[in-house]
């Protein structure tokens, strides 16, 4: 049950900044832990030579594409679990985690079976049938066994965020990645008594670490005394929510893959500069997304406790904090525009191309402060259908047309980043108008009541 102090804060929307930080900082740690480990993995494999590194890049891209589209296992579960948590029904909140975990196992096993059959043609398609495909296939066939484990961790993150426990997931993920980081150089290079496995050793280390994290998340459900049997009704409801979030994720993929393809056609310096600035944007997105995760949890709890007015107040309070944080970040990047690119490259052509995108990047950081916060608010409210439509509309009307026009008219990185700016402005307009309307703030412990209810009070559902 939530504490009396916390319940009063939820009821009034007066959640303190310290509480936001307690939720956001561990969530940020989870978000950045995997990218940091991947950099370490690249450094270890890189000592094997360019062929192994290329194989890891291709194999990693395929594994990422077949697993990260399923973010509804975390974000959707957070929204549903937070509603029950806010209503004081911890048993149902944790039960959402059980259902999400069964979905993770079922979907993960399906991915393993299907992708084992397709591993060779897919790697050959992406790598162009070269020696790189052989390296990538060897790595991928092992790494695929981690897919169910990755999805179990996503489900675990989801329900724990919903009950406002972000520290345990952080510990579980860090321990798993730490084990992988220790094993990776030993297995890849055959250090001490370990076998010399080469590139496949990286995949084995990954799967072992992912397995440890997954075991922790399953143990958390067992320790909580949950009924571990599948709950078909809850699983169907999560899949309905997942459908909208997957469509939204695919829109992002279409946009950024198009941007990379167009940047590549302007030459090596352009694509390198685009990737450099994009990685900085991805870091900013992770930082802002940690606040969005806090918003999800708190908004879901407020609505589950039937405090719709407090949820609206809290929505704008978190958005203000996110905006201030984003402005500070933008100011930092603006002040370092002549220095920071040089940290990543000494190529004068790349640095010159970086400057073409830099000020677009600086401009969209404050916009992102609003967009990410309100994304979290609407996700916490279970307003996934609206977010799906808004993202698809912004991509079709803003990002994609400008991206391809920049190729046709030779606008270079200016056109690409103008497209991203248009995409973010359209998304900001959509989520601000939706939040102002209040139509998302439907109270009740069961998120599925959104499908049949209008604005206002709902009958109590458990």
Automatic annotation (TrEMBL):
Keywords: Cell membrane, Membrane, Transmembrane, Transmembrane helix, Transport. It holds the Pfam family MatE. GO terms for molecular function: antiporter activity; xenobiotic transmembrane transporter activity. GO terms for cellular component: plasma membrane. It is found in: Cell membrane. It is a multi-pass membrane protein. The chain crosses the membrane at residues 20-40, 52-76, 97-118, 138-160, 172-193, 199-222, 245-268, 280-303, 324-344, 356-374, 386-405, 411-433. Its main location: membrane. PANTHER family: PROTEIN DETOXIFICATION 44, CHLOROPLASTIC (PTHR42893:SF46), PROTEIN DETOXIFICATION 44, CHLOROPLASTIC-RELATED (PTHR42893). Belongs to the multi antimicrobial extrusion (MATE) (TC 2.A.66.1) family. NCBIfam families: matE. This is MATE family efflux transporter. It comes from Antrihabitans stalagmiti. The lineage of its organism: Bacteria, Bacillati, Actinomycetota, Actinomycetes, Mycobacteriales.
């Amino acid at each position: 049950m939530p504490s009396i102090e916390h319940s009063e804060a939820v009821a009034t929307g007066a959640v303190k900044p310290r509480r936001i930080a307690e939720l956001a900082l561990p969530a940020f740690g989870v978000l950045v832990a995997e990218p940091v480990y991947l950099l370490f993995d690249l450094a270890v494999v890189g000592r094997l030579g360019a062929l192994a590194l290329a194989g890891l890049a291709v194999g990693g891209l395929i594994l990422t594409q077949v697993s990260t589209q399923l973010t509804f296992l975390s974000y959707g579960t957070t929204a549903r679990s937070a509603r029950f948590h806010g209503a004081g029904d911890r048993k149902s909140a944790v039960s959402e985690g059980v259902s999400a975990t069964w979905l993770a196992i079922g979907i993960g096993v399906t991915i393993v079976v299907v992708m084992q059959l397709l591993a060779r043609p897919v790697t050959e398609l992406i790598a162009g049938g070269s020696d790189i495909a052989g390296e990538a296939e060897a790595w991928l066939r092992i790494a695929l066994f981690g897919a169910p484990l990755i999805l179990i961790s996503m489900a675990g993150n989801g329900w724990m965020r919903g009950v406002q426990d972000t520290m345990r997931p952080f510990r579980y993920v860090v321990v798993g990645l730490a084990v992988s980081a220790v094993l990776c150089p030993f297995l890849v290079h055959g250090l001490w008594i370990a076998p010399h496995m080469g590139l496949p050793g990286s995949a084995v280390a990954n799967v072992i670490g992912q397995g440890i994290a997954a075991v922790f998340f399953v143990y958390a459900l067992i320790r909580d005394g949950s009924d571990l049997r599948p709950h078909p009704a809850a699983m169907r409801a999560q899949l309905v929510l997942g459908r909208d979030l997957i469509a939204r994720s695919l829109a992002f993929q279409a946009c950024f893959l198009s941007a990379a393809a167009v940047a590549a056609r302007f030459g090596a310096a352009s694509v390198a500069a685009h990737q450099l600035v994009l990685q900085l944007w991805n870091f900013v997105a992770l930082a802002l997304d940690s606040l969005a995760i806090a918003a999800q949890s708190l908004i879901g709890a407020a609505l589950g406790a039937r405090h719709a007015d407090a949820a609206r107040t809290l929505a704008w309070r978190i958005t203000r904090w996110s905006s201030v944080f984003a402005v500070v970040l933008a100011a930092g990047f603006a002040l370092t525009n002549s220095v920071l690119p040089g940290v990543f490259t000494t190529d004068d052509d790349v640095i010159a191309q970086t400057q073409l995108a830099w000020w677009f990047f600086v401009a969209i950081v404050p916009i992102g402060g609003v967009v990410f916060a309100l994304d979290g608010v609407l996700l916490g409210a279970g307003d996934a259908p609206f977010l799906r439509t808004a993202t698809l509309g912004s991509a079709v009307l803003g990002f994609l047309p400008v991206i391809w026009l920049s190729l046709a008219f030779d606008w270079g990185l200016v056109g690409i980043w103008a497209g991203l700016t248009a995409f973010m402005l359209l998304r900001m307009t959509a989520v601000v108008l939706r939040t102002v309307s209040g139509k998302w703030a439907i109270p009740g412990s069961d998120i599925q009541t959104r499908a049949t209810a209008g604005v206002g009070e709902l009958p109590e559902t458990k």
